[in-house]
## 1
Amino acid sequence: MAQIPYVYIGKRILATIPILLGVTFLVVGAAEFIPGSRAERLSSKGALSQEQIAAIEKKYGWDKPFHERYFIYLKKVIVDGDWGQSSKTGQLVSDQLIKKIPATMELTVVAMVLATFFGVFIGIIAALKPFSWIDYASMVGALTGISFPVFWLGIMMQLLIYPYSGRLPFEMAATFEPVTNFYLIDTLFWGPDGSFIAAVQHIALPAMALATIPLAVIARMTRASMMEVLTKDYVRTATAKGLARHIVIIKHALKNALIPIVTIAGLQLAALLGGAVLTESVFDWPGLGKFIVESAVAKDVVALQGAVLFVAVIFTLMNLVVDVSYGFIDPRIRVGKD
């Protein structure tokens, strides 16, 4: 059994802490450059007098220097789990995020599974037949996938296939009560007849639209990595020993080509979590991306700040997961031992 690289993991975690602090500083600081008064954006009464603005700013601590407000906000988020209160709905931002995150995570995971499976498969096929028509066709397809704007692809899918919107048909969504807010799980175990099929139909098109760019990137990275590994001596030796072709490819070649593939797949997964804005808007998917758009349109700075901060933190943590995974895939890159 492989030894768990505790020292390596610990160093990666410690290196992530200042990055997370820097991310929160940038996100909170960016709100300072948004035009207009926070008090007026928070109020629904229209124009406020200077006295009313001063009272609201004092109530929420906005009259304090930036560095004080930053540490207060940091304490609330980390210690109290308080991400602020939405000026649009009056609800806690954390409660809204909890409702929106499962929809985005479900869409992102399905899209990433499709992108990884087909991307790795296409990349391996292209690497085994370099500079053949299969190789050229797969790479042209990958370039095409990168070139298509996601919002355009989503609109074309709705026009040419079926205009799905939301996570379930309207009449079914009106009466269905989710348990986990992951509809593929909820409809499979607790949904009425036909609801699981409906949930799959509704997630299929947005997932395919969202998967196009990471699929293309993973396919190209897999092809390049596999072509390099297939020229190594240990692959030639395994082939010369008479091992089956699929064993050589999977056990010897693909295993040693995984590091760049894992890197790009992890980064693409993190990017999808924050980049689903256009896809969710086109398909009316009630997730984090649509929430960011609605918050921006409504000038709900507190909600927008919380959503963007969450996406930034997730992206940073995904980088950490990818970095730590290196120590398990290839022990040679560990910087410490237990």
## 2
Amino acid sequence: MKKKAGTTKRLAAIAVMLLLCAVATVYILNLAHTRMEEARQAEAERAIAEAEQQAAEEAAAAEAETAAETEEASGVASAPERVYSYKGSSDDEAYTMAAYDHAVEAGSGFISMPFVVSGDGTLFVADSDESQGLTGYSGYFSGMSDGQIAELKTRGGADIAKLSDIVEKHGKNINYIIELKYTSDRNIQALEDFIKKNELEGNVAIASTYFSGLKTLENDMPDIPKIFLCEDDVSFGEALGLAQVDTISVKKDLMIADYCKMAHERGKKFGAWTLNTEDEIKSAIDMGVDSYFTDETNLAVGIEKN
């Protein structure tokens, strides 16, 4: 009887052990399966991440290549940022469409245009409201209609250029430095309307010898850079403390290292005008000026690129 009971207990113990082994086996198999699934999932996630990273890198490279091609086509990226083409390539062509075309062809990304406003409210490129200097005809552009101005020629035989024609031709491939020579409300309003109409806010800066005109434009168009064309030491000192002045561009005889340093210390950019010789341009570059106006774009661009 005792022998039979012992046998039963052993069989029960063996059964329990077998059951435990079975449970353990199932657990181990499930654990192994889970870990394999986790490994496969992790591997899949790594593959997806690598594919996404590669796709992002390829997209970025393609975007950069496209941007480079666009910039190369526009000429803006390769244009020296210091060079502001003022009159163009020669006195005979000064302030004409041909002058600015030649400056852009030479590699300039910034052209500077003084303007007058006709009796019809149109902006024309001219350095004075008196037409005598540019055309030889005695009169005032502000008192002429667009039709009357269209009949005039420059001393070199070119048409009087409209700012709108220049902007239409070159678009946003270049930048425009528009000089405010007359600060009447009419002229300032005409300039603001022109900038807004042509959507030039990102491609334009305003230059002037007058603080008052720059202040009005700072109030109306604070995001557009303002350049003060400085003619003497007193106005340089005043410009250092004015919020409406982003760049102080001095006559070349005021282009000295101390002034450049002072402007930079006060958070202003420093420029000069008008630099037309190799020595002047190299001196400006060595000094660390941020920009300079020149009538000799070919010369300036060549020096900058070399």
## 3
Amino acid sequence: MIIEQPAIFLRWIYPHALWRMDRHRKAVYLTFDDGPIPAATPFILDTLERFGARATFFMVGDNAQKYPHLVREVRSRGHRIGNHTFHHLGGLRWKYEEYLQDVYLAGELLHTDLFRPPHGWMRVSQYHRLRKEGFKVVMWDVVTRDYSCYLSADDVVQNVKRYTRPGSIITFHDSLKSIDKLKGALPRALQWLCEQGYEFCVFE
């Protein structure tokens, strides 16, 4: 649970970030980090369409530059796009201005006010600067850990079932590390969410 759901102290560090949405509405916010890539994004889009689900894709600018047709496809299917930096930088390892410049570089391609820091961390000064400039910082309520080589597709589904609650922001990954597990886990997770009566929403 330490990984799957965020520690309270993280919410204190980034107090105005979005961690969980309206807990009185039976809705979830599906998010996919790190894409787009041809090996994963089309499968994810087709699976979401099967279940009538909308999602938010936090894209790495370098991938968006390489595969602009996938960026267009995500948008054309009614999903939202978020900024995940251009080079998937961890904010704590990069100087204040270098990190921000990487965010802005991705922004030139993605044109979105949604931002999620890679690895879920950045300097507090970077966080406040981005918020001041109008970015909505989106974190998570559930991390499925679909990227982990120690977990199976069954484990990913169980994480969704165990930790999802009304208003959950659920994080999957649009990546090579995740796609083999997602092929088994994503349809089952979406089916379960539908059976539980969850609505699929995107950030306004």
## 4
Amino acid sequence: MLQGKIIKSISGFYEVHTRQGVYRCRARGLFRALGQKPLVGDDVEIEVTDTVSVPPEGNVMRLLPHRNSLIRPNVANVDQALLVFAISHPVPSYNMLDRFLILMDRKELPAILCFNKTDLALPEEIEALRETYGDCGCRLLFISNYAGEGIDELRGMLRGRTTVFTGPSGVGKSTLINILCPEARMETGELSRKIARGKNPPRHVELLSSEETGENTFLVDTPGFTSLFLEEMDADQLRFCYPEFSPYEGKCRFNGCVHVHEPSCRVREAVEEGRIHPIRYRNYCELFEELKNRRPVYR
């Protein structure tokens, strides 16, 4: 048996990355009988059946237990998420950015918040983002695909991990992946002048092996998003997704304070005193109202 990782699934075949190269494999019928489906990112054991074909072929014989799995993209064993936003061109949506951070928090997935296009940004724009998200609970990184700024630091953050790349369209994700993993040859395109969005969402899930960054380093691209709905969660749980609120939790006048309209709220006081950024608090209030007023889902 040879151990490897599924890096691509298409048309009933699985490409499995091993120390001896990539094998094109089919999965045993046993998995279907057991209600199991191999996922991109799964660690597996394969039996080699053909070493003459290019690529060589085999069968997936065993799925090893995976640590976690995501639905979009449908991938397993992810170590962290890289949230890529542009500083400008397009200007970031703070509301959307918070949605991404909340989703990663709900998945208990460590996140790196990466702001691209420093070469197009004013110093005050960079500083504003640093002030807004400095206490958001994840690492901040400012880079430029064009100038190469911050790319080596990013490589260090990715080394030895499986990282899912996500974020809105048009922020340079595909170009960044091409820099980190040149053999990926991701298609890139200019932004639409009318809607300022990218035009090249990936059509399937694939782990890209970044040998330049280091062994066992894999990147996963995801479709660009123009909107993002929060997964089902109760409005009164939202406050726990904002790390800036943690020092004040349980110190408000009322137990279970949701930090919106209640009097003697320590979080609101912290906002007024400049200890919590007002943009983050405004986003929280907007998302709280969205969750509070959403229609119930009947199953």
